[in-house]
Each structure stands twice: as C-alpha cells, then as structure tokens.
Amino acid sequence: MDGFPNILLNFANACEDYFEGTGILHCPKIAQDIKYCQSKGKAVVLSMGGASGAYGFSSNKEGADFADVVWNMFFKGESDKRPFDNAVLDGIDLDIEGGAPTGYSAFIKRLRAHYATDPDNKYYIAAAPQCPFPDAYLGSTLNNAWFDMVFVQFYNNYCGVNTYPGWFNFKDWDNWAKNESKNKDVKVFIGRAHNAQNQLRDVISKAMHCVLEPVTGKERMLKTHA
Questions:
Q1: Which residues are tagged catalytic?
Q2: 211: domain CATH number?
Q3: Which InterPro entries does the record cross-reference, listed alphabetically (predicted)?
C-alpha cells in the first residue's frame, strides 16, 4: 500500500476489481487466502510504502487520522469499503523508502490505541528499514515508537550481508535493539536478497553462521528472511 494518506493498493494480478466509483481494490479471493493462512497459525500483515511511488504525511495529525482509516478498512473497525471484506489482518509493516519522516510515530501511536480495544487478539507493527544506520526515513520513528519486529534490508547497500566481514553492520542494529528501541524485546530479522549464484550463497551462509553463533541461547530472535 502506498499513496497515503490516500489508499493505493497493489497486489499485482492477484486482485484487479474495485469498489464501484472508487480507486479502492476489492479483493474477496485474497480475503479467503488471509483466513486460510490464519487458520494454519500464520500471521498476515500489510506492507506500507515501498521503493517507488509518492507517499507520506504532512503532519502528525495526518498520520494519526490515517491510522483510523487503516483500522477501519483492514482490522476490527467499520467501513463500507473493506478491501478484504470481513477478514482481519494481524498487523502493519512499514517499508518506508522515500519522503519525510513526519507522522509515522503518530500513526503507530494511534494504531496501537486501536489495537488496545481488542485485547483478545494479538496485533503487530513491523518495519523494514534499509541497513545503513540510522535509517534515513525511519530512524527517528524506530526510536520513538513501539515495534514488535524489524526486517532489516541487508542488501542493495554497502552494509549488506554480502560485504561480510567488512561493512556488514548487524552490530549497529543489535545495539539499537538492546539499548535504543522502546521495546527491548524487539525481534531483529536479517533480510537478504535471493540470489541463485553459488558463490554468493556461500558468502551469505558464512555470514549467517558468524552472526547467529554469538547470539545462540539469547531471547532475541534472529532469523534470515529472503
């Protein structure tokens, strides 16, 4: 989802129908898939942002107001235009790769207030920052808002897994999780690009071993996410 504070959804060719007279996708088949995955114990989250497209907030109020829209359209709120009908998502992932940092902390604070009205269900807020630390777009938000997990993009940058042991900067993110994050139990995932070349796979495997070995037995969960 991008284009916010307007709603612009893109699920490739998995959903191409719209609510009549609007630009909002209506995706009943995806709704069925969401329910099926959840019945198997899998959480389903919606990613906001991305590497392309124009999006962002001009003020904290705009961010907070957009959280109301998201709650009503995708969670336990009420709207006559719900893209997934009565399917309820498990969370939101912020993949912010452009624009200004304004409004995201306010968005999360308001969305968490909505989450609190439904204590019987567990909802998540995640982020997918790029590996340069601090992240250019989410750095202040990561320090000021409560995240359950971050999927750090250790690829397409000088600090990627493929640069281990040189510029690979997992230690910066580990330090953030332990000492700067508001949630000291935040989960840190190692995001890496998929590449079928054997040489790169070998480099990644060695890096994963060296990164994961020192944290074995700790409560913090570290995983690779391709």
A1: 97
A2: 3.20.20.80
A3: GH, Glyco_hydro18_cat, Glyco_hydro_18_chit_AS, Glycosyl_Hydrlase18_Chitinase
